[in-house]
Amino acid sequence: MKIKLSGHHVDVTDAVKDHVNEKFLKIASHFPTLIALDVIIRKEHGEFHAEVITNYEGSRIATKASDSVMYPAIAKAGKKLDAALKHRKGQLKDDLHKKPITTSPEIAHEIIQGMELN
């Protein structure tokens, strides 16, 4: 999986790159069809904001998280992304497992009406 990491008003050091790779490699193992992630880390008004954007099975998924410390913000965004991907995967699997709609209750009702119960 390719991870594009960028920072706004934040220095992207090797330690930050390693932390991001560590957090998102677990997600890559759960979702092997995930190709690329865009991770944006920015600092505004003393808060760190982490934003993760990806395309998964035809839909765009984006998550955001913020914290006063950078590393927990990245971890929160990773948890939100994992939950969003699981939700999308569930939607895709749900379509495969839908039960067929039956129309037989009306026929059973007609049979009961025709019976003489005296």
Describe this structure in words.
The chain is α+β, with helices and mostly antiparallel strands. Helix content is 46%, strand content 30%. The protein has three helices and four strands. A four-stranded mixed beta sheet has the order 1-2-3-4, with helices on one face.
Give the end-to-end Cα distance, rounded to a whole number of Å.
Answer: 74 Å
Based on the structure, what is the oligomeric state of the protein chains?
Answer: single chain
**Average pLDDT rating:** 85
Shape category: elongated
**SSE topology string:** EHEEEHH
Helix segment tally: 3
Counted beta strands: 4
Strand order of the largest sheet: 1-2-3-4
Q: Percent helix among the residues? A: 40-55%
**Strand content bin:** 25-35%
